[in-house]
Amino acid sequence: MLTRDNEGQSKEEKRDIDFENLVGNLFIAEYQVDRLRTRLADLVSGYRPQIMKNKASTHVFKHNNK
Length: 66
Prior knowledge:
The chain has helices at 11-44, 50-53. It is mainly α.
């Protein structure tokens, strides 16, 4: 026998919906962690945007103080 709450849903249906929401939130959190790890790895490993790769060298060479 199913018992109904005030909204007309059974307690089992509400529990299933809550469980689905929880699992969905966990998938979203896992995706966000993966994206942040990727961005951090790119920053640490010296990843530079394409714009920076095409610019001239930033090193300055001096000879006789010129």
